[in-house]
Fold each of these.
Amino acid sequence: MNNKVDRKDRRALVIGGSISGLFAARVLSDFYDEVIIVERDSLTRENSHRRGVPQSRHAHGLLAGGSDVLEEMFPGIKTELLEAGAVPADVANDGRWFFEGACLRQAPSTTIGLLLSRPLLESVVRGRVRNIDNVTIRENRSVRHLFSSGGHIKAVRTDDETIAADLVVDASGRGSRSLKWLESLRFPAPREERVEIDISYTTRIFSRRESDLNGDLFGVVPATLKNSRSGVILAQENGRWVVTLIGRFGAQAPEDIDGFLAFAKNLEAPFIYNAIRNAEPIGNAMTMKFPASVRRRYERLSRIPKGFLVFGDAICSFNPVYGQGMSVAAMLARTLREELSKGENDLARRFYKAASKVIDTPWALATGNDLKIPETKGKRTLGGKIMGWYVGRLHRLAHHDSQAAFAFLRVAQLLDEPSILLRPGMVLRVLTAGFRGRSERPRPIVARDATSP
């Protein structure tokens, strides 16, 4: 018996034409005769910010794990992005990761990420998807309702038409209406896990000089127990910096330039402030709020509608500070491909189960770090506390140990599972590092031995 999806006269419909929707459509085009993307925005202006994606103005990057999957789906796209201005960066050597009072040791690696704006990435990916013969994008319309029969989603209703589909994928992001739609069809709601972080993030664009950050291409300063302010600076196309400053629980970086600089000056490390204090600001600042990270446990539902999948941020919405969303969407697209290749039988349950495993690592990384902040509301476990303590020690080791830095960064870049941090040799080095005499250890390196810009 052939268990692959029979393409003949089969239609898939994707709700949402942002990054997640484009990734999903690319995969579906290999399994269905026709793929329709329904997008509420106008997509006529390429490489521009869209009303429906206000977060696109803030710092974005494609983690190395997501970048690898992107190349699998669209061969040659990394070269295309680089030609369009994306900045390649060795995640272990070309930037500053500030943890536990100093930067992780910098050393060359083969782990390369791409630094670029969200509109640039989305524009290039959309161009690739538009060139797929069996994919069409219907703009300026929204999905209003789902229609089901016998527990199977059969069609969607937009502003002006009803579209039948054999599979509907909701990739509409944080504002997904899937919960309401499924409730109206008498399907149970998935259990939600919430970590309330109450962050406010403000972004400005600055001109970038090659001498900034002593040539480094990015810098990350996370919040600590003593200082809940955090920030990120990333090189972007067209010789620019994008700088996002984050406040928590009522603290907010001002949008005016003087207030923005003052906020940056009070981060745990000085290098973001030093890089932008004399830089030319470009355009206006923009602020957004993000109350909570939310994970919906569709894989645990006892009854799941057939012919319908929830995808991307609609399944799990991560704290945007960690830049995981686009990369996780790419990895979920690869998971969708793997499950579709096995056929449509029990597709939803199989996909959600596999997707849960993809989400586990980035969810644990993001929420584990957020839960270190006392004001954060969420479930704390003994295992999580022990792992947080251990990772803190690993970070201190990684100030001068490049292998420890590589191991952590490969996990953070979604290339390896966290279990590699618990291999016996690494555990021994982490746990014994504090017992070595200071004379036996190189001093912590603070970004190429420099705290100046």
Amino acid sequence: MREEFGKLLNYTVDENIVSIAYEKNDAYVKVITKNIVNFFVPKVSKERKSKAIEYLDNNICNFTVEKKDSSINIITEALIIKIYDEFLIDIYTIDNELICSDHRGDRKPFLRRSGDYTLLEDEGHEYAKEIEYKVFVKKSMNKDTLFYGLGERTGSLNKRGYHYKNWNTDNSAPHAETFEALYKSIPFLIALEKGNAYGIFFDNHFETHFDMGKENSNYYYFSAVDGNIDYYFINGPQIKEVVEMYTYLTGRTPLPAIWTLGYAQSRWTYANEERVMEIADSFREKGIPCDTIYLDIGYMDRYKVFTWNEKRFSNPQEIMEKLKEKGFKVVTIVDPGVKKEKGYTIYDEGLKNGYFATDKDGVVYVNKVWPGDAVYPDFMNSAVRNWWGNNQKIMLDSGISGIWNDMNEPASFNGPLPDDVMFNDDGTPMMHKEAHNIYGHMMAKATYEGLKKATGKRPFVVTRACYSGTQKYSTVWTGDNQSTWEHLRMSLPMLMNLGLSGLAYCGTDVGGFGFDCTGELLSRWVQVGAFTPFFRNHTSLVTRDQEPWAFDEETEEINRKYIKLRYKFIPYLYDAYRKCELDGTPILKPLLYNYQDDKNTYEINDEFLFGDNILVAPVVEAGARKRLVYLPEGDSWIDYWTKEEFTGGQYIIKDAPLDTCPIYIKAGSIIPIMEEMNYIGEKENKVLHLEIYSSKNGEGHMKYTHYCDDGESFNYRDGEYNEYRIEASMEEEVKVKINLIHDGYNKKYESYDYKVF
């Protein structure tokens, strides 16, 4: 299973690359920074065309290389990398403390009893099959090692004991903890060992696997069915440092348009313009804030992308204008599958220019999706991405404000795409088995760049399938979940691990996509959704209505209460997004992100931090009206509802009737808030409203940095923004001081007010 290298012979150094010669193969070590090192063996191609790492500065980092009796040692300001025969690698701190080591010895999987597997297959059961890995890297694991990351995985926050496959998969069955693959492939793992963290980013686009001690508790491994050995070691020791450096490599979530942070309503499908207007009017009449309405596949003419069904939407521009007058934006779904139909412009153009994937003989490949026989744009090709991007203007000219990419695993109805379906990676042939996991990523890139080119504004793209680095182009959601308590519970570690994996702008289908929601479940789910970066209620074709008012007065009131709470915190949320763009900090994150020294936080699945100052402990059990809450050590916490203060490092029991989600504000916090609005931008923010949560036990001086810009353009990147330094002193009397520390945006607050709790 291990690549055969043989004895270590010698090495050469060229700038930041150390080339290591072995008896049988060569290997390469690239020093990116003092804390990031890349290990590369060109098994398939010497040239690397990473789709995740696109804009990395090739800065030369100071390091030295020395040859010892049995190893080559590469020494940075932070690390000692020891490389041995057979390309075995051990990594130490500069103080010579072991961080990570390759596992010596044979691979020893657990014993799986044999039997007549055909009986399982006949009854429809799946079972683990032996896989031939061409790339296999095995690392030692201790009994206390914990794992995080890998994107939207089912199961617990801590991934120890799990095995996952990276192969973007549209599986319509209810997602369970046993699922090894879902829609996204994020081959990035964070290990936490003895309080210190490091990351492994395995940049291989083929089908890859991560096994965190399921096979053997003495080691973990990452592997691939094909491709190169190409992975990055990222030293912490803090998890936040690992995430910061991983997003330095793969890119960070750009500051979104502020309207996208509001509430969104969707379903498959709002049948026609009359139903859409009914939905919009209901929000305004009932006083429930909402910014966005989504249109699923039903708006199209026979599911042909970049078209409108004229019977359902007779004049798209007119209905979009009517919705705009009411303060609504519209986002439309656009799938990759292009209907095979002569006379259909998109198909004809793509066929003429050779823009579709082909079989191995060069014939355009056809499968079935929503429009019937369909072909697949070759998003590996920059000319195709440019063409697809330009076509976004068709939808923009209709008045829509964002694009929702679905079915881009790519999904298909007539069996999966064969491995040898061919794509053109700008002159280099690429088989589907290599393109599959990056197909959605490249589609998102095409869509983002097309929208940006057409409008000059911050694009809004939502994608189901993606790869590492997609955060540069799109928000994501966890796909087709179910209206069950199990899926509500599972959504929390999924979202936390997405944030740790660089995909900070993430969410779920609030209320659940499949099955019929209940009033109680929706009430609890919207309490979670109010604090997720992406906040959209979405349900399937034949399910019961799931709008906030679709159940009873109590459910409607709870939805109104928490959607309004979401809007109240928009300025605070926008500040969190600003920080995210600067250093990769997730918006929604596990408690351990800020409290790594508190071991009690390591495996908490049902609480999370919203920004740095708000802790949310939602109720995720049917019928529960109390819950156990852990408050991290090192800070005091103030109950948002009662204003009672608690010392951190303890468990408390919180009363949580159906209309109450336990929320705690870190004592010593300053929280900017927004006055009530039906949609973002309905009123001009002329007054800076602040809530100050003083501590009875802590220091009386508090600080906070607040950010403002126009909320839609990229001008902020040229300095067109304002930044305020807010300080509050809680001595004999309250003193609040606000300094404008960056003055670049012409709209400034005219005054400020505050409440102290």
